[in-house]
Fold:
Amino acid sequence: MDSLLQDKAFACIRVAPRADKPRETGLTIMADRGLGTRAQADLLETAASYVDVAKMGIGAWRLQPAELLRRKITAYHDAGIKVFLAGDATEAAFAQGVSAEFYAAVRELGADAVEVSSAQVTMSLADKSALIKMAAAQGLDVVAEAGQKGQEDWTRSLSYVLKQIETYQAAGAWKVLIQAEGISEDVASFKGDFVLAIVARFGIENLIFQAKDAKAQLWYVSTFGNAVNLDVDDDQVLDLELLRRGIRKRGVFGLLGAL
Structure:
């Protein structure tokens, strides 16, 4: 069902329609970098309707008590938000040979998914495929990352990136996350042609694009529409939703014509 936000304030102002939650496309993945429960509660009060997945990132969850994580995961679930664990600590589990134990602990905490990435450790495609299958066997969804943090070189071989995505999907990944570094971060100019080549092959439904700056978010929504899946920071959720709704563009408010 399309939502026109008739249950929100100022319903007289028209907005672009969006599917209600739970959505299959147009997902907003929000990075939770160790939020406390009060900060989480504030965020959910103001923006829960616009967040589809909470990504507990940077491995901050390794520093926090299990009881706190359970409460946070429950609060996200109560708001209709899926939870997945991402960050360097997931790669540490692989490097230390404890991925199976890690995935079991994720399930015990009640989270829905994990990330398979290689920002800190070297993994072959065979390694990543094995991890995707291992996590799936534990009943977890997998977000598999294509690209490499900390360097731009990974975008020089489109054929290898396409092979990565193909391999992850064949192994059963729920979504593939396209890393921002090398496309929109730490580059002289945005590599739109590179992104278009990926989308031409795989479409947008099963891809998530990391977009942590306003210009990148504008490009993705302007190019692919408001059904594109984007990974943003917690303080960008409302800005992104305004962009998806056709209200906020290029940092200024404009008039919205008849829909």
In short: The longest strand covers residues 141-146. The chain has a mean pLDDT of 92. The longest helix spans residues 158-171.
